[in-house]
Amino acid sequence: MNMKKNAMFIWYGVWLLVLTTCQSEQKSEKKTMNNENLGAYAKDVHSFARPQEVVMNHLDLDLQVDFDKKILVGKATIHFENKAQGDTIVLDTQGLTIEKVLLDNGKETPFWLGEKVKYLGSALKIKISPESKAVTIHYRTSPQAEALQWLTPQQTAGKQKPFLFTQSQAILARSWVPCQDSPGIRFTYTAKVQVPKDLMAVMSAENPQQRNEKGIYEYKMPQPIPAYLLALAVGDIQFEKIGERSGVYAEPVTLKKAVYEFADLEKMLEAAEKISGIKYPWGRYDVIVLPPSFPFGGMENPRITFATPTILVGDRSLTSLIAHELAHSWSGNLVTNATWNDIWLNEGFTVYFERRIMEALYGKSYFDMLSVLGYEDLQKTLQELGENNEDTKLKLNLKDRNPDEGVTEIAYEKGNFFLLTLENQVGREKFDAFLSNYFKEFSFKTMDTERFVKYLKEKLPEAEKIGIEQWIYEKGLPKNCQKPVSERFVKVAQTIQKYIENQEIDKQATQNWSSHEWLFFLRNLPKNLTKEDLTKLDQQLNFTNSSNSEILTAWFELAIEKEYEKAYPQLANFLQNVGRRKFLMPLYKALLKTEKGKQMAKEIYQKARPNYHFVAVNSLDAIIQ
After folding, report:
1. How large is the average pLDDT for residues 48-61?
2. Cβ pair 73, 198 in contact under 8 A
3. Which of 563, 374, 591 is nearest to 481 (CA)?
């Protein structure tokens, strides 16, 4: 510790002494302030912030991207409202090196980093005065910052230049920006980011569409967002327009393919506006296709969805993922879960909304297919967790846990089927009116489960007939959840039956199948298939060499179960080159069921782990290492 920092901590000690002396007077003063003055914020167990006292409302970022050291260096100016007229602002950090902090008058002020807490990082406490409006924090990130993935050229699609992307959800924003990292706290932001001159940068904000010669980019996000929607991507990327308010960013080698795949972006926007009754609230809707190590299918960062390349299959059959991230523009980004215990309010609503968009574009039969596959995913999750597991409730308790543990099909699919049951009870027209009013009334605000239940009962009293409390607060799946049916899948089942009878695939019946029909086919093959049966199937349909990651994952699960070793080289290649957690988890879990598979899983993981984002590594380490 240098002398300058010693002096800073001595100053901080004196400040604490003064605080202690005045403690009783301050407590007395705070008792006179009611909750309305302080503002209503849900207690967030995943944040150190005390927004009822001091809450940030704007962020100015100034960052330099250093690919050699794998760090961001810069400053963050936090503008805030001192509701309690207190002398401390508390921010969330994780692994940041704080060099100095300035008050809005330019003078240095004492600060203190608390002890590191598992999952949460460290509280950053900064001395302010009742008159203070902002603090400027000079800092740098760690090369191991959990939100940041630094990719070598070889790990990108183009193989020529490095790449950086962030993943802030759920509580990783604090690892690259000091902030109040809670979904219940919203702020606007501006940013200036300096990158190597041969690269381009985009953020969850108003974005450039062309590279500039200086490598300096400026951004503005005029609508208030929570910290988990802060996003940055830097790489060899280009932009191509799709519609008046939509377009695609991608590496040059990927761009044309992405533009083709996302041709219906404008139609999706129009459908979403019609369903929600609210004009798209974020200005533009663009998509950036990231390298394969991106851990999710997509991330709903406002104005620019981050998307996995695994949905680029050439037939636009996996674009429901884009509809999902677009739907988040209303359910999640516009009306946000107050804490991660309420994540179903984001994801359940979004799955419901996504499928309504796909129905509007491609018909009821498409909606039915997605519903059946979602129901199958939900049943699998319930089986894995056990129906008596507390985590099968919609309202979760994630205290002292990583909030990522709440990202399961319970939040997504049980939440969706709860809303479908509501729609069936009151009728679509009435439910659509309810949703539209809900989005309008709570725009740019947060919502927790308890307030939603109260609002639902007030606006749709007949909804109580479905057993609202049972759906939300009880374990498992209520008996009034209707199992969806798909006519297109009935035909797939008939094709499966014919295959069982004569060991031949009806090529005419399957020639126009979508990815969803093939997925249903693989999931519903007889359980008594042998290794020889898989050999014949592969000879007829060449599943092992499919370019569709959804189909490959389902096929590889079968191959692992039946020890179809001819698929193993491609399986290893897939696991080493795709970082999407949705695919990684079931395949590694399948391998770990046998001693031979365990050895294979460990060998593959040792090679693949450096290519995965922290979000994937965090989940996989727990089951492999």
Report:
1. 97
2. no
3. 374
Looking at the structure, tell me whether residues 316 and 347 fall in a common domain: no
Catalytic residue among 217, 352, 412, 605: 412
pLDDT tens for each residue of 353-404: 999 999 999 999 999 999 999 999 999 999 999 989 999 999 999 999 999 9
Please compute the mean of the pLDDT values over residues 487-513 and round it to a whole number: 92
- Helix-helix angle 364-385:487-502, to 10 degrees: 70
CB 539 within 8 A of CB 531: no
The pLDDT of residue 40 is: 64
Residues 366 and 390 in one domain: yes
Predicted confidence at residue 12, as pLDDT, reads: 43
Report whether pLDDT(13) > 90: no
Question: Domain tally for the chain?
Answer: 4
End-of-domain residue from the set 329, 361, 387: 329
Q: 59 and 179 in contact (C-beta within 8 Å)?
A: yes
Catalytic residue among 300, 325, 413, 423: 325
pTM value?
0.91
38 and 160 housed in the same domain: yes
| CA distance linking residue 254 with residue 291, whole number of Å | 10
pLDDT for res 41: 84
**CATH number of 125's domain:** 2.60.40.1730
Same domain assignment for residues 74 and 137: yes
- Report the alpha-carbon distance of residue 89 to residue 128 in Å, rounded: 7
308 and 358, same domain (yes or no): no
380 in a domain, yes or no? yes
Is 346 in the same domain as 291? no
Asked if residue 158 lies in contact with residue 252, where contact means CB atoms within 8 angstroms, the answer is yes
The number of beta carbons lying within 10 Å of the beta carbon of residue 523 is: 16
Q: Is 412 a catalytic residue?
A: yes
Give yes or no: residues 77 and 214 share one domain: yes
Is residue 251 a part of any domain in this protein? Answer: no
Structure tokens of 75?
């400053």
Residue 565 belongs to domain spanning:
527-624
| CA angle in degrees (0–180, nearest 5) for 437-275-410 | 85
The pLDDT value given to residue 28: 32
Task: Verify cis geometry, omega within 30 degrees of 0, for the bond prior to 170.
Answer: yes
Alpha helices (H) in 277-363, listed in sequence order: 320-327, 344-362
